[in-house]
Amino acid sequence: xxxxxxxxxxxxxxxxxxxxxxxxxxxxxxxxxxxxxxxxxxxxxxxxxxxxxxxxxxxxxxxxxxxxxxxxxxxxxxxxxxxxxxxxxxxxxxxxxxxxxxxxxxxxxxxxxxxxxxxxxxxxxxxxxxxxxxxxxxxxxxxxxxxxxxxxxxxxxxxxxxxxxxxxxxxxxxxxxxxxxxx
Length: 183
What we know:
Blueprint: H1 4-56, H2 61-122, H3 128-182
Helix pairs in contact: 1-2, 2-3
C-alpha cells in the first residue's frame, strides 16, 4: 500500500542530508579563506617591515628608485599570489556546490518520480491527465535544470579563461619590468 507520509519523511531526510553537506562545504571553504587571509596578512606585515628597513638604509636617490621598484614588484607578486589563492578556493567551492546541486536535483527527481509512480497506481479513475501533467512538469524541470547546468558550466569556463589570461598578462608585465630593470 502507498504511504505518502513515509515517502515525504524520506524526502525530508534527504533534504536534511543535503543541507548538512552544504553547511560542511560552506564551513570548509570559509576555513580555507580565513587561512589564506591570515597568511596574507602575516606576509604583508613581514613585507612592510622589510620594506621599511630597506628604505631606512637607502643612501641616495638611485638606490631609492631601485628599492621602490623592487618593493612595487614584490607587492604585485603578493597580490597576484593572493588572487590565485582566492581563485583556487572559489573554483573548488564552485565545483563542490555544483556537485551538491546535481546530487540534490537527482535525489529530488528520483523521489518525485517514485511518488508519481506510486500515486498513479492508487489514483482514482480519471486522474490520468493530472498525473501526466505532473510528469510533464517534472520532465520540464529536468530539462530546465540541465540547461541551467550547461549554461553555468560555460560561464565558469569563460570566467576561468579570462582570469587565467589576466594572470598571464600580469606575469608578463612583471617579467618585462624585471628585464628592463636589469638592462
